[in-house]
From TrEMBL, chain A:
It comes from Caenorhabditis remanei (Caenorhabditis vulgaris). Residues 737-945 form the ER membrane protein complex subunit 1 C-terminal domain. Keywords: Endoplasmic reticulum, Glycoprotein, Membrane, Signal, Transmembrane, Transmembrane helix. It is a single-pass type I membrane protein. This is ER membrane protein complex subunit 1. GO terms for cellular component: EMC complex.
TrEMBL record, chain B:
It is a single-pass type I membrane protein. It comes from Caenorhabditis remanei. It holds the Pfam family ECM10. It is found in: Endoplasmic reticulum membrane. Belongs to the EMC10 family. This is ER membrane protein complex subunit 10. Keywords: Endoplasmic reticulum, Membrane, Signal, Transmembrane, Transmembrane helix. Residues 1-20 form the signal peptide. It comes from the Eukaryota. GO terms for cellular component: EMC complex.
Length: 946, 235
């Protein structure tokens, strides 16, 4: 009886679900498909044209050709987030799409028009990336790894199966008229194995054909040919005639592509177009001069060649001498084009351009007008988001005036100060008056337009109020509660975006160049760190943000600084060495810029922008770093003024060579903790142990499956707490905030995910000295009291984060992203290390929640309600101007932004609070009382006369 | 005659070696290990509960304090070698000033693994219990300024290092406590069943709080009424 009651109470306490009319008001979602590897033009039914796209992130999708919107999208299993440059292997017939999924272990059949899965067939248990699929004559032919199979369409059992002795290195199906063959190669061999597939679907015995210099990397296959290049030599093998054509071109070749009978052999200066004919064999039809920024493609009907560069698109006809050029609008922030997919219809050419920055552009080129028409574009690099920051918008004009008023520019006399104050206040008055007049005019015009009556009047006043508060239509300045921000998103593809948080629209884009390559971090992830060096708080100065990455060719570190509001690059510096580690300094220079410190492989130190020694205060002369190596841990002290790195402590934290470091989490230097303690039931105060130098290190031992969480002070190397648990496994996530650490892991023992919490307190002693500053070098009289607790969590965990508010006053919430695409908000009140097993009445009075071993996952607590967010890799939270509200961006395959109110909107009126109605009623009452007073008086007078 | 003191110390140390489970030798330096001197050793002994306690045995060095005060603005580094881990050295550094302020009292904060008997990290702190009572009271910070400006250091800082050892072992992370929760639920269920049977007090004993006001009201109103009844006919 108690249990359901308790569950209900906890649900009520933390139900923060949104109302139906709030859907989409504060939140937006961007669905992405990833970097296209293969694009097919397709037609569904008679009119709606679609693009079938398979991407590097193993997503199969269909885009509406006219708008670029996603028709449908299917996200396949993620093979450990490995980028697959060839995408999914798929083929199609008039109704279905057949794709090889789950690393070559199964075939999935999808309805072409809506993406619904029709069937799934198993190939084998073995994973393989060498795949081929072909559908013809009512049969489905599949090759994956060693296996070669044929299915009758609609059957679940294969007609026939061949399993090769070795893993293949090349595999493809070829069809000419009714003849079908499968060609494969094995690593190290120059022979091709050809298996004919007879009309009844059975395989004939393999035949061997030798091609000299066959190299899978340098070959391409199309309709009935395999073409390979070797230096300047080109080989084309006809699979059916079993004949090899050879030719030598005048320059060294770089790539080969083609379609039908045409081959495009690209050198550094020009591209050769070759054709195979039965009479003449292989012959060069044309040569086109190229520059390095050009990309070559061929239309589906093999009649014209498309050469695209950032400035123009050239179209060359193969069969005639005709060619023309159409100019494109050049944008510096779009990268070079990687691949071209094109077709010709009756009027014009339809071309899909895919850039190195994963931008998909759909353009049409009209021969008559020679104009490139951009139909739509999609920025797909956002699927590789790695770093996110949210930056305040610049101050509005009136806020600037207030700032001006209090600006202390030297010592001015009293009259000047008075004049300045009057001036700025008059300015504010004028602004207010003009704003109100504008609003009144709007109301009047809408009134005259919409008719009359009280209801219309109220509605139009309300609409006018909403126009004023709607942030998206307002000017580019900070709103009253600072809820609208610029989200800076950095991707591992080399792009930086500025996104408006109010509606998710792109404000600007920055392409970091062809030489971009992400940094390799200690925990083996791609990393492109982003630092906000100067916010927009200093209104005379623009904001400044920097990204750090490495040069693909030289491996040296590069730092690019830009204005976060408009995306304009301020400076670009390349270091003379690779970057080992980097951090933003907690001190700013006289221009209010927080410099970024980059440490090279051999402890070279560079600071951007440089900081003068006199700008350092005694407490900020040095910086402490944690250096984790296998079985040796060091604390390093970096002296900023002398730029020297010295070890200050050394130990091993109990790490052995079997231990794998899973997560290291420190605290950001500007985190605010509002309350220093926690009031207990006994009216005592338990003081929080808040050590800004504390880092939490999670390691897992491969042999003993032991998860260890160590809390170490970076300045002194003091191990504050260390605890471990056996039989645990990845995924392990860790969140470190204030005086607590929350972690999740997979428990092999319970076969479930468990969510744990560690809290640190200084104890309840009364002689707790209120220190102004935490000092790592002086030990506390008593070691911190550790409270820990663990809960069952009935869902998997993809990512974990914690809410962040302006003053740190609001109860924090932990955000947990599930593999199913939900983001669950767990209040710290539930995830508490001090939930008592036995509730006394005094505890109940304090609204404490009794211990329950499970943290319930309720649908009302999903901050993304039904907006599924797939494969979340990270959640970024940022404070807004309102203490109750935290801004959240979850990124992964989709982007999702929303506002989070962990303790409810206690500092703001309800969204549906009706100002208009209340003020109307009030004025009505006042007027009414006045009128009745008059009436009553005249009545009384009349009665006295009578 | 000259060998005698060293022999004596050797004789003293020998039984300690026999009783302690493992030792950690410490040496210190004030110039980054260009010159280093022995600081003493820490003996680790297992208690009855299986936990380790450490005891610091300082080396008999009389001018430790003087060395510290002559190198006030240098770094005081301590290097440790554990007898159970060959070839591994542990390093910790601090401010000499802090130790002059704490009358050369050290706190050695050791993080160890009890099962493997291995040292993870060692950190040396000044002992705040022995803080000098100067005008700044207990407030003393390691940051800022030079040593002399921060406190009026007595020049008589002399003597040998003294210290206590604090040992942090590896604890275990909790698992969800389902067993005791189920127990608690059962206990409550049982208590409820028993409670329903056990409440066999009389009707009045159970509901006296509802009855008393009603009775009181009746009494008061009846006490008021006679007057009213008398008053009404009078009018």
């Amino acid at each position: 009886m108690r249990l359901p009651l308790l569950v209900t109470i906890t649900l009520i306490a933390s139900a923060t679900a949104i109302f139906e009319d709030q859907v989409g008001k504060f939140d937006w979602r961007k669905q992405l498909i990833g970097c296209p590897a293969r694009v097919d033009f397709d037609k569904i039914g008679s009119k709606s044209d679609r693009l079938l796209i398979s991407t590097e992130q193993s997503i199969l999708s269909s885009l509406v050709l006219n708008t670029g919107n996603i028709g449908w999208r299917r996200i396949m299993e993620d093979s450990n987030q490995v980028v697959q440059p060839n995408g999914l292997t798929f083929t199609k017939d008039h109704e279905y799409i057949y794709s090889i999924s789950s690393d070559g272990r199964s075939i999935r059949v999808w309805h072409k028009n809506n993406g619904v899965m029709a069937r799934q067939l198993t190939i084998s248990e073995q994973k393989s990336t060498i795949q081929a699929i072909h559908v013809s004559n009512g049969r489905l032919h599949v090759a994956s790894g060693k296996t070669l199979m044929v299915f009758r369409l609609g059957d679940d059992k294969p007609l026939e199966t061949i399993v090769a002795k070795r893993e293949r290195s090349f595999s493809a199906f070829f069809q000419q008229d009714d003849h079908l063959v499968h060609v494969s190669a094995f690593p190290g061999d120059f022979n091709l194995e050809i298996v004919k597939i007879s009309d009844d679907g059975s395989f004939e015995t393999p035949k061997q054909v030798i091609i000299d210099g066959f190299d899978v990397e340098k070959c391409h296959h199309q309709s009935q040919y395999i073409s390979c290049y070797h230096n300047s030599q080109l080989l084309v093998a006809d699979v059916f005639a079993q004949k090899v054509h050879k030719t030598t071109l005048d320059s060294k070749l770089q790539s080969i592509s083609g379609s039908g009978r045409l081959f495009l052999a690209r050198g550094s200066q020009k591209v050769h177009i070759l054709e195979v004919t039965s009479e003449n064999g292989l012959q060069v039809r044309k040569s086109i001069d190229l520059t390095s920024s050009d990309t070559v493609g061929i239309t589906e009907n093999h009649e014209s060649i498309i050469v695209a560069s950032p400035e123009s698109i050239r179209i060359v006809f193969v069969n005639s001498g005709k060619h023309f050029e159409a100019k494109r609008e050049k944008n510096e922030q779009n990268s070079r084009i990687r691949s071209i997919f094109a077709r010709k219809n009756e009027k014009d050419w339809e071309i899909v351009l895919v850039g190195n920055d994963c931008r998909i552009e759909f353009v049409t080129v009209d021969e008559g007008s020679k104009i490139v028409n951009l139909e739509w574009a999609r920025e797909e690099s956002l699927i590789n988001t790695v770093s996110v920051e949210m930056v305040d918008l610049p101050l509005s004009e009136s806020q600037q005036m207030i700032e001006d008023e209090f600006e202390e520019e030297g010592q001015q006399n009293i009259i000047a100060a008075f004049v300045r104050r009057i001036h700025s206040q008059v300015g504010q008055l004028i602004r207010q008056v003009t704003k109100n007049v504008e609003k009144a005019i709007q109301v009047v015009t809408s009134l005259s337009r919409d008719g009359n009556g009280v209801a219309d009047f109220i509605n139009s006043v309300r609409a006018a109020g909403q126009i004023g508060s709607a942030s998206s239509s307002g000017p580019f300045e900070r709103d009253y509660f600072n809820l609208r921000k610029v989200i800076i998103v950095v991707t591992s593809s080399g792009t930086v975006f500025g996104i408006d948080s109010s509606d998710g629209s792109y404000l600007w884009k920055l392409w970091l160049g062809d030489a971009f390559s992400p940094l390799e971090s200690q925990l083996d992830q791609k990393r492109v760190p982003l630092f906000v060096q100067r916010t927009t708080a200093h209104y005379q100065l623009d904001g400044l943000a920097s990204v750090v990455f490495s040069n693909k060719i030289t491996q040296n570190g590069v730092i690019v600084s830009f204005n976060p509001m408009i995306g304009k690059v301020e400076s670009r510096n390349e270091l003379g060495y690779p970057v080992k580690r980097l951090t933003i300094l907690p001190i700013h220079n006289h221009r209010h810029v927080f410099p970024v410190m980059l440490i090279g492989k051999n402890d070279e130190i560079a600071v951007f922008p440089s900081i003068a020694p006199e700008e350092l205060t005694p407490s900020t002369t040095s910086l402490y770093l944690l250096d984790l190596q296998k079985s040796s841990v060091q604390g390093l002290k970096v002296d900023i003024s002398t730029q020297k790195v010295t070890p200050i402590w050394q130990g091993n934290l109990g790490l052995t060579s079997d231990d794998e470091i899973v997560a290291v989490k420190g605290k950001s230097f500007n985190q605010k903790v509002h309350s220093q303690g926690r009031v207990l039931v006994t009216r005592e105060v338990q003081y929080k142990y808040i050590n800004p130098n504390l880092a939490a290190v999670a390691t897992i031992n491969k042999n003993t499956q032991q998860l260890t969480i160590t809390l170490v002070d970076i300045v002194t190397g003091q191990v504050v707490h260390s605890a471990s648990i056996g039989k645990s496994a990845k995924p392990i996530h860790l969140v470190h905030s204030e005086n607590w650490i929350a972690y999740t892991y997979w428990s092999e023992k319970g076969r479930r995910t468990e969510l744990g919490i560690i809290e640190l307190y200084e104890g309840t002693e009364e002689n707790h000295t209120q220190k102004e500053m935490f000092d790592s070098k002086i030990v506390q009289k008593l070691p911190p009291v550790v409270a820990q607790q663990s809960y069952i969590y009935a869902q998997g965990v993809d990512a974990m984060s914690v809410s962040e508010t302006e003053q740190g006053l609001t109860t924090r919430s932990i955000l947990v992203a599930h593999p199913s695409g939900n983001i669950h908000e767990v209040s710290r009140r539930l995830l508490d290390a001090n939930r008592p097993m036995e509730l006394t009445p005094a505890m109940r009075e304090e609204m404490m929640i009794g211990y329950m071993p499970e943290i319930a996952v309720a649908t009302e607590e999903m901050i993304n309600y039904n907006q599924t967010v797939h494969r979340v890799r990270g959640i970024k939270t940022s404070p807004s101007g309102l203490e109750s509200t935290s801004l959240v961006l979850a990124y992964g395959t989709d982007l999702f932004f929303t506002r989070l109110v962990p303790s409810g909107t206690f500092d703001i009126l309800k969204d549906d609070f009706d100002h208009v109605l209340i003020s109307l009623v009030l004025t009505g009452l006042v007027v009414g009382s006045y009128v009745t007073k008059r009436l009553a008086r005249s009545n009384a007078l009349a009665s006295q006369w009578s | 005659m000259q060998i005698k003191p060293s022999l004596l110390t050797a004789l003293l140390i020998l039984p300690i070696f026999c009783t302690s489970e493992w030792t950690i030798d410490l040496e210190y330096s004030l110039n980054g290990f260009t010159n280093s001197y022995p600081l003493g050793n820490i003996e680790m002994r297992r208690g009855f509960d299986g936990n380790f306690t450490g005891t610091f045995k300082p080396s008999q060095e009389q001018n430790f304090g003087q060395k510290l005060s002559s190198a006030q603005d240098e770094t005081y580094s301590v290097r440790a070698k554990s007898s159970t881990q060959n070839g591994q050295t542990f390093l910790t550094t601090s401010d000499p000033c802090l130790f002059l302020h704490s009358n050369l009292f050290h706190v050695f904060w050791l993080s160890i693994s009890q099962e493997k008997q291995q040292l993870h990290t060692i950190t040396v702190f000044p002992d705040t219990v022995a803080w000098r009572n100067d005008e700044e009271g207990g407030k003393y910070e390691s940051l800022g300024k030079t040593c002399k400006e921060r406190s009026s250091l007595a020049s008589e800082s002399r003597g040998t290092p003294k210290g206590v050892v604090h040992v942090v072992g590896e604890s275990t992370l909790p698992t969800p406590d389902t067993a005791s929760f189920v127990q608690k639920m059962e206990r409550e269920k049982r208590a409820k069943q028993h409670g329903a049977d056990a409440d066999n007090r009389s009707f009045i004993a159970k509901y006296w709080m509802y009855i008393v006001p009603v009775v009181l009201f009746a009494v008061i109103s009846s006490a008021m009424n006679p007057e009213g009844a008398e008053g009404a006919p009078a009018q």
